[in-house]
Amino acid sequence: NAGVTQTPKFRVLKTGQSMTLLCAQDMNHEYMYWYRQDPGMGLRLIHYSVGEGTTAKGEVPDGYNVSRLKKQNFLLGLESAAPSQTSVYFCASQRQGFMNTEAFFGQGTRLTVV
Amino acid sequence: KQEVTQIPAALSVPEGENLVLNCSFTDSAIYNLQWFRQDPGKGLTSLLLIQSSQREQTSGRLNASLDKSSGRSTLYIAASQPGDSATYLCAVHSSASKIIFGSGTRLSIRP
User: Fold this and answer.
1) Which of A106, A114, A111 is nearest to A3 (CA)?
2) Which residues in chain B are contacts of A92 at CB distance < 8 A?
3) Cα–Cα–Cα angle for A33, A99, B90, nearest 5°?
4) Partner of A17 for a Cys bridge, out of A12, A13, A75, B16, CB 3.0 to 4.6 A?
5) Best mutation site among A32, A101, A107, A111 for testing chain B: the one with the most B CBs within 10 Å?
């Protein structure tokens, strides 16, 4: 069972560069999320998706875009990276519905913008 | 807007002690609450999930309780071990499609 897989695991970007983080899940979950984790601030929701072809803004969406073209994949894009986007990014997925809907997380992507 | 708070931010106890981690939330209209463990530089490992209709869940030495009316959850760890040292995160499934996290409690168990 792969669960939730994030690619890449580490990346260093220069200010202004762009990149895409990939999240893939093999559990046929409807809901997917992108979070960022910064010291002392916990995990903050960037964007989320309730199904293929849908996306919505979370708590801190500025500077990021997302796409959910396939149910199993949720992409997070940085069009013009800034040092403030240095963080650890986590993807999660969850089955639709609200009973026994445990959220599963990937291992994270550590991004440094210099 | 749902806010989730975890107190204390850090806790250090000697091995063998029983301990309680606290989580509070401002909006009692939740679907469920999930406790996670995070080791340094690692991802999140799910420990326990409590449905909104439940009062507690148990897994081994861990017991999580939920009191929706007061907006509180506790994670009880019995007979703590050095391997329990990690950051513990509380997450509230607060509305359709949203999971809100507390900032965590960093736990250190002294041998």
Assistant:
1) A106
2) 99
3) 55
4) A13
5) A101
Instruction: Report pLDDT digits (tens) over A16-63.
Output: 999 999 999 999 999 999 999 998 778 999 999 989 999 999 989 999
Query: Chain A interface, mutation test: which of B97, B103, B105, most A Cβ atoms within 10 Å?
Result: B97
Report the distance separating Cα B70 and Cα B67, nearest Å: 6
B chain contacts of residue A48, beta-carbon cutoff 8 Å: 97-98
How close, in Å, is residue B10 to chain A by CA atoms? 11
Strand bridging mode A65-67 / A73-78: antiparallel
- Which residues from chain A sit within 8 angstroms of residue B98, using beta carbons? 45, 48, 58
Q: Which two tokens stand for residue B96?
A: 């359709």
For residue A76, give the nearest of A98, A61, A97, A86 by alpha carbon: A61
Which amino acid appears at position B14 of this protein? Answer: P
pLDDT (tens digit per residue) in B30-67: 888 999 999 988 889 999 999 888 999 999 999 999 99
CB pair distance less than 8 Å for B93 and A50? no
DSSP chain A: ---EEEE-SEEEE-TT--EEEEEEESS--SEEEEEEEETTTEEEEEEEESSTT--EE-SS-TT-EEE-SSTTEEEEEESS--GGG-EEEEEEEE-SSSSS---EE---EEEEE-
User: A7 is written with which tokens?
Assistant: 């690619």
Q: Give me the residue from B89, B97, B104 closest to A48, CB to CB.
A: B97
